[in-house]
Specification:
Blueprint: H1 6-20, H2 36-43, H3 48-54, E1 57-68, E2 73-80, E3 83-90, H4 96-103, E4 110-119, E5 125-136, H5 152-157, H6 159-165, H7 167-189, E6 193-194, E7 200-201, E8 213-216, E9 221-225, H8 230-238, E10 243-251, E11 263-272, H9 276-295, E12 299-302, E13 305-308, E14 314-317, H10 318-326, H11 336-345, H12 356-367, E15 376-382, E16 398-406, E17 409-416, H13 421-436, H14 447-454, E18 460-466, H15 467-475
Parallel strand pairs: 3-5, 6-10, 14-15
Antiparallel strand pairs: 1-2, 1-4, 2-3, 4-5, 7-9, 8-9, 10-11, 11-18, 12-13, 15-16, 16-17, 17-18
């Protein structure tokens, strides 16, 4: 028992005492008939007299999170997946063995109970226990005697403890799948087909990002963990599926902050015969629908700001947005040298592979993105940073691409898909030049995708929405690591 605390030593002794009583400290099956939230929904308004007349018997299980009294009677709170409920234990209402087991119980232990519902003298809906079953002994005490974890990193590292001790963790954990289901409901109801595409990809493409690289022994090939699902989904449009979507994990070997985790979830959707404007309408309608389904309202409170998803989203071109905030007008053609001079004047670092388009995007990041609060579509992105988007008919320096920004962060990316295989090959070639100049996020040449385009991709609109960030938004959570059950963290040295 080296390095064990006094509490841990005592609990291990109780394990042996349970064994001596013939009770398995780590238990067996227990058939549950109800949960805490179901009890409160069905009987929360019943009076003491009504409960006595109804004689409601229940069978439930959960973790002990509060104990009061340990003589001939006592109260406990047990917590199951849906919440907590108080139970009342009297030694004369259970067997002699069960009474001994009850006295060996600790905070954190998992138990099963049978009993009837009643109200205490303080009018709290409770369970009067008639059968007490030990299910699992907790060898470690709950943190801080159940006052909760205060170390944020420890909560993220030991999510199971956060789920036990923090209501906010449980709320996020249960809200996240509701949000994902709402996205599925939306796309399913509009005729989209949900599909699955490979996580291992032999060609880097679909986004500008650094990849994770792995090796397949049998094929003796290098693979990337996908940075996007875009390319295979567009191949399905070529195949005639016309409307497809995928909710899945992406992997990017990049920096980490409050809105970036190396492993994250997106929904990507592609619709034949649509375009950028169609995707704007779709994204706006989708996010409004998801918000309404999950929250029951189209007004979202995030970081003390009221965000309006019920009104039409603002739409503005990237160059107009820059002009609006800085006075600089990039709608007119300028040389690379002129753009570099402007960048230097405003403290923007110009990398070797930068063109005028890259610099325009940097000005947007500096002057505009942090200032956006309400949902806003920023469209007409420079050609150089949009290798898979169709050129704008009126100004080929730009593409029919937009990103959705809310409260200073990007939430969606969409465009009219480039379906010209000749143009697409030229874009890939330009990306290869960027890679040679040091842009590790540039795409590779994807001949297989070009061949697919040669068979004919109909005019198509495509979109991608970051699920994790949207979960943050709807749960008013400031860090992406708090909406992912198992976020990636620096390894903690073991003592």
């Amino acid at each position: 028992m080296t390095n064990l605390t006094d509490q841990e030593i005592i609990r291990r002794k109780k394990v042996e005492e349970l064994k001596e009583l013939g009770v398995d400290p780590f238990g067996h099956r227990f058939d549950v008939t109800t949960h805490a939230d179901e009890i409160f929904r069905a009987f929360g308004e019943k009076t003491k007299e009504e409960l006595a007349d109804l004689n409601i018997n229940i069978r439930m299980a959960g973790r002990i999170v509060l104990k009061r009294g340990q003589g001939k009677a006592g109260f406990m709170h047990i917590q199951d997946r849906s919440g907590r409920i108080q139970i009342y234990v009297r030694t004369d209402s259970i067997s002699e063995l069960e009474a001994k087991v009850w006295k060996l119980s600790d905070l954190g232990d998992i138990i099963g109970v049978e009993g009837f519902l009643f109200r205490t003298n303080t009018n709290e809906l409770s369970v009067h226990v008639t059968k007490y079953v030990h299910l699992t002994k907790a060898l470690k005490p709950l943190p801080e005697k159940y006052h909760g974890l205060t170390d944020v990193e420890e909560i993220r590292r030991k999510r199971y403890l956060g789920l036990i001790t923090n209501e906010s963790d449980r709320h996020i954990a249960y809200t996240r799948p509701k949000i994902i289901r709402a996205f599925q409901h939306y796309f399913d109801s509009r005729g989209f087909i949900e599909v699955e595409t490979p996580v291992l990809q032999s060609i880097l493409g679909g986004a500008a990002a650094r990849p994770f690289i792995t090796h397949h022994n049998t094929l003796d090939m290098e693979f990337y963990l996908r940075i996007a699902t875009e390319i295979p989904l567009k191949k399905l449009i070529v195949g005639g599926m016309e409307a497809v979507y995928e909710i899945g994990r992406l992997f990017r070997n990049e920096g980490m902050d409050s809105t970036h985790n190396p492993e994250f979830t997106t929904v990507e959707a592609y619709l034949a015969y649509s375009n950028m404007e169609g995707m704007m309408d779709l994204v706006e309608d989708c996010l409004r629908s998801v918000t309404k389904e999950v929250l029951g309202t189209t007004t979202v409170t995030f970081d003390d700001k009221e965000l309006d998803f019920g009104s039409p989203f603002k739409r503005i071109t990237m160059v107009d947005a820059i002009k609006e905030k800085s006075g600089l007008d990039f709608s007119k053609e300028i040389t690379l040298d002129e753009a570099k001079a402007l960048a230097k004047k405003h403290g923007i670092e110009v990398e070797k592979h930068f063109t005028v388009g890259h610099i325009i995007a940097e000005f947007f990041d500096l002057f505009v993105e942090p200032t956006i609060t309400q949902p806003t579509f920023v469209y007409m992105y420079p050609l150089e940073i949009s290798p898979l988007a169709k050129k704008n008919d009126k100004d080929p320096r730009f593409t029919d691409r937009f990103e959705l920004f809310i409260n200073g962060a990007e939430y969606a990316n969409a465009y009219s898909e480039l379906n010209d295989p000749i143009d697409q090959k030229e874009r890939f070639e330009a990306q290869l030049v960027e890679r040679e100049k040091g842009n590790a996020e540039a795409s590779e040449m994807d001949y297989d995708f070009i061949e697919a385009l040669e068979y004919g991709l109909p005019p198509t609109g495509g979109l991608g929405i970051g699920i994790d960030r949207f979960v943050m938004l709807l749960t008013n959570t400031k860090s992406i690591r708090d909406v992912i059950l198992f976020p990636h963290l620096r390894e903690k040295p073991r003592k």
